[in-house]
Design brief:
22% of the residues lie in helices and 20% in strands. With 409 residues, it is α/β, with parallel strands linked by helices. It has one domain: Alkaline Phosphatase, subunit A (3-Layer(aba) Sandwich). Strands 9-8-5-4-10-1-11-12-2-13 form a 10-stranded mixed beta sheet, with helices on both faces. Strand 15 and strand 16 form a beta hairpin. Helix 1 crosses helix 7 and helix 5 packs parallel to helix 7. It is globular. The termini are far apart. 54% of the residues are buried.
């Protein structure tokens, strides 16, 4: 039997309700829906954090963010430090076993050279190092608005700056990912690929050809739908190429988002100071920055044709911190010797009864724990930069998944 390939596909600030297979009546994602039909769609998939850098560290290491050395959003200037290089990532683990490893997309785990993707086991990499860039110029403006720092061009391939202004970044990310997996196949090597789209994170940019598909929607939802349509087309192209190369049956694909949708007013692009309403949590409480489920429960799809059922909907409580040990199991490699907070969830996603465990989150002054049906949030913030809604909030997630009733009061 051929060794398994592994592909992590991550979106940015995509809400739990923003896929058609997750119930959206305005977002159309036929290729991602097909991916769900080819595997397991998880109704209780959690990210490692309610913000991007910690959740990405968790996804790539199998640890809760604090144990991976990243507890908050990292800076994007070129001397910014990030995830400690001694923390092992799946790229390093599989690279040591002869796998080809690549990243295409957003890094946001350190912009200084010592923290680049190449320092964490990625043999090939394309994308940007900061948290957000303009989709067409690939310039990082964010810190200019906060501390007066100058804008920084931020597009790279294998450590060399790339000037591709005018090219839509979502499409570039898909193209490079396909090229890298083709190279791995041509070399006769199994691969681990990390495809980290920055969509639908602000700035809300989408070419007219995508916007036209949703011309009937209000501007905020139109842009969200258009940006996700570009991602969906990319996922479809990647899966089609895997099929063409005869690799799809042997490839474990994990699709998820780094955290819930953003309410930040900068999404509007017209000076509006109201909270942004373009993303959907699917009725969950909270958004990005919140440890209520709207900030941390996200879309989760796991497809592995030779090892998992097809068209299964799973209510198992699993998450991005499980992706690395699950990938190692799919590759037939031991987890012994690594420190994980997650576990192999292939049995859970095959319908087996899941053993009990505790899941933890921390962000600023907020703390949360999920234990079976119960979820406890301390100092939970429904809205960023506002006081906590309650100092102690206990929810029965089986009966009250939207966390409306405080059982501690």
């Amino acid at each position: 039997m051929r060794p398994a390939n592994v592909l992590f596909i991550l979106t940015d600030d995509q809400g739990y309700g923003d896929l058609s297979c997750m119930g959206s009546d305005v977002i159309r994602t036929p290729h991602i829906d097909a991916l769900a039909q080819s595997g397991v769609r998880c109704t209780q998939w959690y990210s490692g954090s309610a913000v991007c850098s910690p959740s990405r560290a968790s996804l790539l290491t199998g640890r809760f963010p604090g144990n991976a050395g990243v507890r908050s959003i990292l800076s994007g200037h070129r001397t910014a430090s990030g995830m400690p290089p001694e923390v092992p990532t799946l790229a390093r683990m599989l690279g040591e076993q002869g796998y080809a490893t690549f990243l295409s997309g957003k890094w946001h785990l350190g912009a200084r050279r010592a923290c680049w993707p190449s320092a964490h086991g990625f043999q090939r990499w394309f994308g940007f190092l900061a948290g957000c860039v303009d989709y067409f110029s690939h310039i990082y403006y964010w810190e200019m608005n906060h501390n007066g720092s100058n804008p920084i061009h931020d597009l790279w391939e294998d450590g060399r700056e790339q000037w591709l202004e005018g090219r839509y970044l979502t499409e570039l990310i898909s193209e490079r990912a396909i090229g890298y997996l083709q190279d791995a196949h041509a070399a006769g090597r199994p691969f681990f690929g990390y495809v980290a789209y920055n969509a639908p994170h602000y700035p809300m940019h989408a070419p007219e050809r995508y916007r036209q598909r949703f011309a009937h929607l209000p501007w905020d939802r139109q842009l969200m739908a258009a940006m996700l349509a570009a991602v969906d087309d990319g996922v479809g192209a990647i899966c089609s190429e895997l099929e063409r190369l005869g690799l799809r049956e042997d490839t474990l694909i994990v699709f998820t988002s780094d955290n819930g949708p953003s309410r930040e007013s900068r999404n509007w692009l017209d000076g509006t100071l109201d909270p942004y309403y373009g993303g959907s949590t699917g009725g969950l409480r909270g958004h990005k920055f919140s440890l209520f489920d709207g900030g941390i429960r996200v879309p989760g799809i796991v497809s592995y044709p030779r090892g998992l059922p097809r068209a299964l909907v799973s209510d198992a409580v699993v998450g991005s911190f499980d992706a690395v040990p699950t990938a190692l199991a799919a590759c037939g490699l031991p987890s012994a010797g690594y420190e994980f907070d997650g576990r192999d969830v292939l049995p859970d996603l095959s319908g087996a009864s899941a053993p009990a465990r505790d899941l933890f989150w921390e962000l600023g002054g907020q703390t949360a724990i999920r234990r079976d049906r119960w979820k406890l949030v301390l100092n939970g913030q429904r809205v960023e930069n506002e006081p906590p809604t309650e100092s102690v909030f206990l929810a029965d997630m089986w009966d009250d998944p939207s966390e409306r009733l405080n059982r501690a009061s």
